[in-house]
Amino acid sequence: MSRNRPGRPARGLAAITWLYVLWSLVPVLIAIRISFNSGKSRSTFQSPSWRWYFTDQLQSVLHDDSLRQPLRNSLKLAALSMLLTVPIGVSMAIGLQRWRGKLSKASNGLMLFPLVTPEIVMGVALFLVFTQVYTGVPRGFTTQLLGHITFSISYVVVIVRGRLAAIGPQYEEAARDLGANRMQAMRLVLLPLLGPAIFASLMVVFAGSIDDFVISSFLSTGASSETVPMKIYSSGRATATPALNALATIMLVFTLAAVGLAALVMRRMRMRQGGGDDVQLGNMAAVG
């Protein structure tokens, strides 16, 4: 008889998983710790300090405009991308879900095209479009925003269409049977059911936009439209101070806050929609 225990493979997989997690997190934790150094070393740990965040009057993130400006650009670009992309993507997802024409399958395939296209190809294509075709579009932040919206829409459509497929048409049809028009059925029944998918789309677009480097760099026109990833790339190999690590840490905090907020809100949505059928039937009764 074999003496192999069923628990051994599971322990091996758990060990591999934890090794991978440590391999991924240790460099990030080291970079974060260096951002709190009191001196200028980026290779050794020094006494902890907030110098590179706000206490240094010249070189900290708070006081150095060459670091503060990229952070403002990244947050502004991510926020506007999120607010503009998600409504467009939700509308497109609903339209594609209901389209029954001969070209509907082809349109679904084209919608996935940005997801499988290498980002550098997308960046070059957008650069050529804005420099050779749409020459009237203001260069810099405007073209960066349009580029981020272009590659982010597909993520929203995929997420929302997955939720639409899970919901099915029955709730909306029941609302119409109770006397609601199309807009009432969509506003009172469909959109509340799409709430988790819409919020997840907001967070995905925000995280993808704030971390983007390739498209932002191709469509940038200089320091006025420089983002945090561009700043880190251009200054990382130079004689930079731990302020660059502090800038990266602030960026990481914003990204983790977005992910944590998404997890918290979606958990509360699931709890509130635990009796989702009863809630939606109540909404349909109200419109009836």
In CATH, what is the class?
Mainly Alpha
Question: What is the terminal-to-terminal distance?
Answer: 68 Å
Number of helices: 14
Give Rg in angstroms. Answer: 24 Å
CATH topology category name:
MetI-like fold
Keywords, please?
mainly alpha, disordered C terminus, MetI-like fold, 288 residues
Mind explaining what this structure looks like?
The chain is mainly alpha-helical and 288 residues long. The chain has a single domain, classed as MetI-like (MetI-like fold, Orthogonal Bundle). 74% of the residues lie in helices and 0% in strands. It is built from 14 helices and no strands. It has helices at residues 7-34, 51-55, 65-98, 104-111, 113-116, 119-133, 141-167, 170-177, 182-193, 195-211, 214-218, 228-235, 243-272, 276-287. Helix 3 packs antiparallel against helix 10 and helix 3 packs across helix 12 (228-235). The relative contact order is 0.13.
Task: List strands and helices in order, with pairings.
Blueprint: H1 7-34, H2 51-55, H3 65-98, H4 104-111, H5 113-116, H6 119-133, H7 141-167, H8 170-177, H9 182-193, H10 195-211, H11 214-218, H12 228-235, H13 243-272, H14 276-287
Short overview:
Helix content is 74%, strand content 0%.
